[in-house]
């Protein structure tokens, strides 16, 4: 019974922290629009939309992605408000792919091995980076911005995104290994043989 109570409290703490982070991302996206950076605001709102999927599907406000993953996704958005960080876009893209992978693994019947999860996060990061490049190109054409200046810069952007995807994949494996180890520890302390 104490283990069950601990899990319920952990779920509540996770939900409270996750909702706080999601609200701060919404505020950051509004501030980003105010600054005139619509592309970043769209990316921030995409993270918010991904965070809303589990509670909407399960119809339970306590069912939220892990707050740690949301914080990793939110940090580049927050940093972007106070200045430019050249790698912020890559961090956000990798964090978005990480968030998708965590949600698929945690809230669906999909089970991923560690190797597959690493490959999936890297490939998802590359896919999101490709969409990000297309969005930058459309912005350059439609709004006369200058996100993409040279082909070499574009290629390095994709290489950096892939590298950060690898980093996000490692974080995914470490996080879930720690989570699974803690779960096994709780089960063995409670006398549950499973």
List the helices and strands and how they pair.
Layout: H1 2-35, H2 38-58, H3 67-81, H4 88-107, H5 114-143, H6 151-190
Helix pairs in contact: 1-2, 1-3, 2-3, 2-4, 3-4, 4-5, 4-6, 5-6
Transmembrane segments: 12-31, 37-54, 85-104, 116-138, 158-177
Keywords: Membrane, Plasmid, Transmembrane, Transmembrane helix
Which of globular, elongated, flat, extended, rod-shaped describes the shape? globular
- The helical percent reads over 70%
Radius of gyration: 18 Å
Measure the end-to-end span: 16 Å
What's the mean pLDDT score?
80
Classification by helices and strands: mainly alpha
Kindly state the number of beta strands.
0
Number of domains: 1
Largest sheet report: none
Give, in order, the helices and strands: HHHHHH
Name the beta content range: under 5%
Low-confidence sequence ranges: 1-8, 183-194
Q: Number of helix segments?
A: 6
Keywords: Membrane, Plasmid, Transmembrane, Transmembrane helix
Transmembrane segments: 12-31, 37-54, 85-104, 116-138, 158-177
What would the keywords be for this entry?
single chain, 194 residues, mainly alpha, 6 helices, transmembrane, transmembrane helix, plasmid, membrane
Written account of the structure:
It contains six helices and no strands. Helix 5 (114-143) packs antiparallel against helix 6. The protein has one domain. It is globular, with a radius of gyration of 18 Å. The model is unreliable at 1-8 and 183-194 (pLDDT under 50). It is an all-alpha fold.
